[in-house]
Each structure stands twice: as C-alpha cells, then as structure tokens.
Amino acid sequence: MHVAELMTIPPVTTRGDVAVTEALRVLVEHGITALPVVDDAGRLEGLLSEADVIRGRVPHTDRPTGAGGAPALVADVMEPLRASVGPETDLATAVDLLTSVSVPILPVVDPDGLLVGVVSRSDVVRSLSTAQPTAQSTEHAGLAPHERRLLETACRAPSVHNTQPWLWRVDGPFVELYADPSRLLPASDPDGRNMLISCGAALHHLQVAARGQGRTCTVTRLPEGPRSTLLARVVLGAADPEGQGRSEEAHRRDLEDSARDLEAVAARVTDRRRFTSWPVPEQRLDHLASLASRQGCTVAAVTDPHQRHRLEELVEEARAGLAGDPARWGEQRAWTGRGGADGVPEEALEGPATRFDDEPVLDPGGIERADGVLVLATPADEPLDHLVTGEALSRLWLSATSELLSLVPLSHVVEAPQTRHALRHEVLATSLHPQLLVRVGWQETSRDPLPPSPRRALGDVLLR
Q: pTM for the complete prediction?
C-alpha cells in the first residue's frame, strides 16, 4: 500500500506569517494535532504542532513576541521539517517515520516540493481497521509487524541487475542474512563478488530500518566463516524510541538522521538517464566519500585529470569487452524487462535520455566530463571485503539521495580482470583492491521520477 491510498486531502495548512492565535483556532476547529506550514506557492516550510503552540504561549527572550509576551507569528514557534514522504512511499516506511521521528503527522509532497496531503497515525489506524486480509498478510502471519517492516526496508536495497540475491531468517531478536546462490550471475560474477556486495547493501538497509525503530544492532559478519552462505547474524536491541541514556541533543540528531535515511530508502532508485552538465563539486564528492568510508572499505573520489582520462579509457575498454562477450551480454538481456518481481524494468531503460541506447543495457558507456566518480576499494579481496563494500555502497547511495544526487554503479569495470588490474595499479596506484566504481551527478529536475524497481515477496526470501 502506498501513502497516496490513505493520505488526507486536501490538507489543512497555515503560513508562517499567520498569527499563532489564528493557527490555534484552526487546530481546534478541525480537531487536528498539527498543521503543515507552506509558502504562498504551496511549498512546505515546516510544521506547527499543538506542542509548538503550547510552548509558544510562554515568552522566550530570544523570540519575537506580540502583545502579552507570546510569540506573534507561526514562523516564530514552528519546528523545522523533520520528515516528509512522497505519494508513492510505501506504508511501511511511513509507519516507521511516524513511530520513530516523534512527529504527529507526515506531510506528503510531490517532486516539486508542493504539499499534496498529510498522513497521521490515525489515518494508518483507520486503514488497518478496515483492511481485509490479503494473501501476503496471511503468508507473513508468523512475523510481527516490526519484523515485517525491517525486512521490507532491507529488501529495498540495490542489487546487481536487481537480482535481490538474499535470504533472511528471523528468530526472536536474531535476524540472519544468507546469500542466495541460485541468483548468482555465472557469466559476469563467477566468484560472487557482486552478489556479496548486493547482500552487504541489504545488511546496511536492515541496520537503517532497525535504527528507525529505535533499536540497536549488534552485527556479526560471516559467523560461520567465508565459505558459508550465512553472511551475517544481527542481534536487535529492544525498542527505545525515547532515547533513554542519551542526551536530548544526541537523541534529536539520531531522530533526524534516521528520518533522513528512511526517506532516502523510499526515494532511492537507479536512474541511468543522462546526468546534466552541472558538475558535482569536489568538496561534495569528498564529503560523500568520507560519509561512506567505513572500517574495511575506503571510498575515494577520482578528480585528477590524468587519472580521469585513464579511467575513461578503462570504462570504454570494459564496455567494449562486455559487448563482445555473448555470455555476459545474454545474461544482461535475461535480467532486463522481465516484467516480474525482479530484474531491471523496461521503464528504467526507455527514453531518449538514456546513456546506453543500443549499447550494453545495464552499465552506461563512457564517463562524461561533469560526472563525479567514486571508487570503493578494500585492503583485501575476500568475502568479508565484498560484504562491507556493499554496506559502504548503501551508505553512499542513501547519502547521495538525501543530497538530491543520482548514483549509478559501473560494475563492468571490475568484472574483467584486465581492466580491474589497470584500475588498481594505473588509476588508484595503491595496494587497495577496487570493488566497485560509481558515477554521481545531477538529474534534470523537470524529468518524471522513476518508480522503484519491483521487489520479491517476503515469502520468497524468508527462511523458516
């Protein structure tokens, strides 16, 4: 179910230049707990809740006040926006935000930032009370709602060719992640590197989902060794939505970070259309790299002109090698436009703005001048390195999405041994092993957003 199916429309709103007393009257008249604050064009600026109004009745020396000492305008007491969703956001993500971010309502905005509706906890309760049992809900009767939301969020992770090569087992506070070897790509990924990177991204998404529920995570990677399909065992802590044991400021930052990540999970897509000619500043690339670098994986921007030139040659060489390899080419074709719950959907490949046209369909061609380029590399080249690369990729992608940047992996450069060797020694000039290359850039704001790629049903990825 999507947010659009249960949101309240039209939303009752206020503006920042409205008197607090008038906003209070609107709250009482409509029997609601919060008002989105919009500008004259209908773009969202903030949120005014009952708590803000109550606090606003007490004078503050650092705020403008009206007669009697109370703040005069909504803009004086409203809170900055902590979270919003789009009409196509799934209900599970909205529920996580409503229950973890301490907001009374979720504003629903369109791609232009215009407010189109609101979702409240009462909207969700009303929807649940009238919903009829479905095949999926019956199938997952053994999972608690919070467990189902955890796995649904984890399964939104990116994966090579959208193969979704993961399996899960839930047992109380334990969640186990397994690789699904039946989804290995034998022609392009015979060693399973990309499969494990994909599973690592799902592991990070699971941690994001747990944090959104106010839960801690203790992760043990490869608990049965590198040859086992058991990739991680996660122990979930009890929910602590109030952030007990942390300062108020630390708790507030956690809530904001969690809300931002959950929004990014809902918004993230692999958009292979051409980027604009606007360059990504080096400082922005370095910032993303620092956020995504984690123990065991280094993310570095390639900005030196000579390194960029050689990298562009390697990308073209790898693309030509892919086009000339019938097995790999056929494998890509097999995972394109399948029309089911996996693979790359046709809408992600269509249109005159795509970078590949009649070239290999999933990895774009050459790197253009304005593209930002990041390399994910590790000190070794073992299964653990591949897994943590996926976690770093997830962190990088969510951060880029939050900053309105588009990211596209270029896996074919590291799939061929010769281009991977040249990337390591001629471009990186380091002992690190390159695991993945990604392009970063800006999409045209006027383009229609792509819908999320399809996902397998939980029953298909759940081990009993």
A: 0.75
